[in-house]
Amino acid sequence: MHESAKAEVTLIIPVYDEEHTIVPLVDEIQRCVRPAWRALIIYDQDDDATLRKVDEITSNHDNVRFVRNRCGPGIVNAFRTGFAEADTPFIVPIMADLSDMPETVNAMHERIRDGYDMVVASRYAPGGAKIGGPWLKNRLSRMANRTLHALTGIPTHDMTNAFIMYRRPMLDTITIESTGGFEITMEIIAKAFVLGYRITEVPTVNRDRAAGKSKFKLMHWILKYLYWFLYILGCSLRKRLYKGGPSEARSKAAR
């Protein structure tokens, strides 16, 4: 068992009725993740079914803590709460539905220790894959991410995967504006890119959730994704026109 006092990596695990997957996930993290880690399981309400597993998890893992989402309900606020609670050099959100592969944390950790500020676990990088899930959602995601990479040169093929390792000081410079769902991922990558932080990616395999029903609502969030898509395109265009990047865009990203 890892000693949480010496942890380098905090895993942020947002949950919503994940009682069937949370124990297998924590066990998989324990088996696969090599850097010393601690985990924060972020829940919204005291009646969340995930909490039925508190005793089972905490009795076997002293580096796992359940934290009430104090910023309000939803994934964005779960991220905010997790970012605020984490006190390790590196932070990684990971989904509770077993779609993310914990062993990818090892590759991300190796790359971020090379001096990068952000390492994206990419489904669309060479060696990565997306297994299962709705065909339309997968197709749109792949097409949008490839287009954005080709048009802007942003150093990742996957802007919409939340499985990312962040360096703590970088996160502290970015004010999160997102209010909906997983567009928070695009926002942080976009602002980090504009601010000139070092970004890279490693391949990962993303699996369709093992149990329960997906909370992803494509049509509800598509306009929010589109906003950050256009934000990156606009900043990239200004960067090329002015050859040094607009100071105004960098200032806005930091706010």
Can you tag this structure with a few keywords?
globular, Spore Coat Polysaccharide Biosynthesis Protein SpsA, Chain A, two-stranded parallel ribbon, single chain, 255 residues, 42% helix, alpha/beta, 9 strands
Outline the fold blueprint:
Layout: E1 9-14, H1 22-32, E2 37-43, H2 54-60, E3 64-68, H3 75-85, E4 90-93, H4 104-112, E5 118-122, E6 129-131, H5 135-152, E7 164-167, H6 168-171, H7 183-195, E8 199-203, E9 205-207, H8 218-242, H9 247-254
Parallel strand pairs: 1-2, 1-4, 2-3, 5-8, 6-9
Antiparallel strand pairs: 4-7, 5-7
Helix pairs in contact: 5-8, 7-8, 7-9
Mind explaining what this structure looks like?
This protein has 255 residues and is an alpha/beta fold. It has a single domain (7-254), classed as Spore Coat Polysaccharide Biosynthesis Protein SpsA, Chain A (Alpha-Beta Complex). The protein contains 9 helices and 9 strands. The longest helix is centred in the last third of the chain and has 25 residues, at 218-242.
